[in-house]
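Hey, quick one: can you model this chain's 3D structure?
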Amino acid sequence: MCGRFVLLTDLSVITDSFDIQDVACEWRSGSNIAPGQNILAVIRKEDRNILVDFRWGLIPSWAKDPAIGTRMFNARAETIAEKPSFKHAFRKRRCLIVADGFYEWQKSGRTKQPFYFSLRSDEPFGFAGLYETWMGPDRQQVHTCTIITTEPNDLIRSIHDRMPVILPKDREADWIDQENPDLGRLMSMLTPYPSEKMKMAEVTSPLG
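Sure thing. Here's the predicted structure for all 208 residues.
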């Protein structure tokens, strides 16, 4: 799973890295970003990459109770094409969720030790994500998202049995292309990121 991540990189670096043509949100950063918070994402509309913010925790458009979003902060890659909560977003509403790194916890008896994972290059990257728009009783739209997870790579396997999908740069454009009809090719992107391109550090100070 992915329940906490980090984004501290400057906005100017993000816009360059993700070829952003339109910033449609306030800049948001954090060293321990959690579900329920608004997070930065990249979507593509009218041939433009747009930086937006979504609430982390997907609320399906058909949901009657928005509390369902508290359980929908991750989506398993193996089932997103069939699961009612995610299958429509998988076809038409894919995004990149911007991050510098993420945390996973290793269980040892009654304690849990956090570890921080990032790219060896120290560059920001995009988690594969899905997004939805939910209409509340007050007719106000709520824009939400989820991070897709997959099986762990060799680096993470000793710490946790899942990891978020990190998309390589050369696959980002295809992932957010909403006109991309090749669902099989999209599914093939949802694989563990190469271990040799990542690094791990034990977290020794309390997470804020």
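One thing worth noting: The mean pLDDT is 94.
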